[in-house]
Amino acid sequence: MVPKFRAWDTTNKEIFKDTFAITESGQVVVVDQSSVFVSPDYVFVDNLVIMQSTGLFDRNNKEIFEGDIITNGKDVMCMKRHNTLGFYVEQKGKVEFIADSAVLEEFEEDAKEIADILEIIGNIYENPELLEAIK
């Protein structure tokens, strides 16, 4: 799986969903759908919070990224990423890692089960009020 990312623009207070690359100098380069460079100086990394996709999709087929606030219909959780241990959900002070030691086949089965029950209801940047349900 090729890692996918999105970014929160802390200056304009919006999710940056276009395809982008980060240069060695730390500059973000925006790429359009045909992979033609649009603007090599669009925005700098200092203004962005980068969020990685989990590779999972919710029951509405929306891709789940770190920073997303999700629900299973009963509980509200926040998707997070540990730099070495991988993705996990945090709920009321508890954490649960996702497929931290699973083999690929088991992970794919788990992902299908997850997709059937989870739904993205927001994210920590655009909907900070939802974090109260997690604490």
UniProtKB/TrEMBL annotation:
State the coiled-coil residue ranges.
none
| SUPFAM superfamilies named among the record's database cross-references | YopX-like
Q: Where is the YopX protein domain?
A: 4-132
Its name, as the record gives it, is YopX protein domain-containing protein
Question: What is the taxonomic lineage of the source species?
Answer: Bacteria, Bacillati, Bacillota, Bacilli, Lactobacillales
